[in-house]
Amino acid sequence: MINVNRVVYYVLVVGMLFSIGLYIFGLGLLVTHPQSPPNSLDPYSLIQELPQLKPYSVLMLAAIIQILTPVGRVVAALLAFTINRDGPYVAISGAVLAIIILGILLSLSGFSKPSP
Amino acid sequence: MLPAVSDILLSSVVGVFAGLVGALVGVGGGVFITPFLTLYMGIPIRESIAASLVAVIATSTAGGSSYVDQRITHVKLAMFLEVATTAGALLGALLAVRLSSWTLYIVFGSVILYMTYNAMKTLHTDERRISRGDFVSASPDRLAHLLQLEGEYYDAWERRTVRYSVRGVRVGSTSSFLAGMISGLLGIGGGAVKVGVMNLYMNVPIKVAVATSKFMIGVTAASGALVFLWSGLVNPYVAAPIALGTTAGATVGTFIMNRVRSGQIKLLFSLLLLYLGYAMLARGLAMGFGIHLPLPGGGGR
User: Which of B124, B113, B91 is CA-nearest to residue B261?
Assistant: First the structure.
């Protein structure tokens, strides 16, 4: 039996440590090598700028890891419940994940808007 | 715009405060962060909300992981209620573009003020119920038993293990659905309502409710933040110092929370509810009837 609480805990801690480390590194870079943010706050620019270790791309990567961490813990819980053959909670965590994905897809399709 | 070092430091300090208070009462702290960014730092509202969501996730991750480690969070209860809150948040977000919101502000503001009244009325009952063992003697309903929702945690103030049986699962999941709707529709009050629902209607001790809410809010915020990220509205220069600050504040807050009296946490929580309820009601009255009540801090999101 997998301890679901520990699995969830490790996912949260690893996500938190990665993002904190990158935030500190990125803010250090920003202070020592100031770089204005690009005109478009496009996460795709991350892919181009990341190898050059520019402050914007490092901080954006930290924010992306931060945002994905709670979703990661839902996925991890789903996998742990599946391995434990805990039927009701496989269904419950699967439903949470499905609703999150549905919400994102509906928002991106323009069916709802992201802010009040 | 390139942030000044003083702005980075100030944002971090505000983040520490929001993270600390958020960890003590189980909320994300967006109610402090968004007004600070818009009113004081002059950041556009959408970028402010996006940065606030990233900070809420940061505080939920830091606080949530610590409470899971301390075995206060009820992970299964959180997963179960997340179905209702995420579904509610989705419906709320869909309705937000189709409904005039002033009536909803008034309705939800009134509901939150009613919850404030109930929370104030039961300020010290958690401690009495812990000492009498009432949390465990309450009979769980069938669904709670089926979902293995009984739980326990070590209360560092009471210096004892507190066992409890979750009940009122139907009322709890319906209320959580409404709580999710409030956060999806109005972008405010998700964590506060979740704590109130668990503690007031589901026989969950206040410290477990705080820890479980803290754990849950990250998922709701992440769904919103992903959309903002995709829309290019997450400015890491704004989000990073706040997120770092909230992480530090939440980490400190989680070490304090279990070491203080339940009544003190509930008082702090009640005051926050009072502010949220009042702010929502005031905003509804201003939008619907042009009646302007004083609103410190702009009323959050």
Answer: B124
Give the C-alpha separation, B86 to B220, whole Å: 6
Sign of torsion, CA B294 A115 A63 A7?
positive
User: What is A43-88 written as a DSSP string?
Assistant: TTHHHHHGGGT-HHHHHHHHHHHHHHHHHHHHHHHHHHHHHTT-HH
- C-alpha A16: how far from its chain's center? 10
DSSP three-state, residue A107 = helix
pTM metric for this prediction: 0.87
Residues 6+ apart with CB under 8 A from B245: B11, B12, B13, B14, B15, B16, B17, B18, B19, B55
| Range of lowest pLDDT (A94-108, B90-104, B257-271) | B90-104
Among the partner residues A71, A73, A99, nearest to B87 by beta-carbon distance = A99
Q: Which B residues, 260 through 289, put their C-beta within 8 Å of a C-beta on chain A?
A: none
A chain contacts of residue B187, beta-carbon cutoff 8 Å: 115-116
- Residue numbers of A between 59 and 98 with CB closer than 8 Å to B: 59-60, 62-64, 66-71, 73-74, 77, 88-89, 92-93, 95-96
* Helix, strand, or coil (residue A35): coil
* ipTM attached to this prediction: 0.90
Nearest-by-CA chain A residue for B98: A112
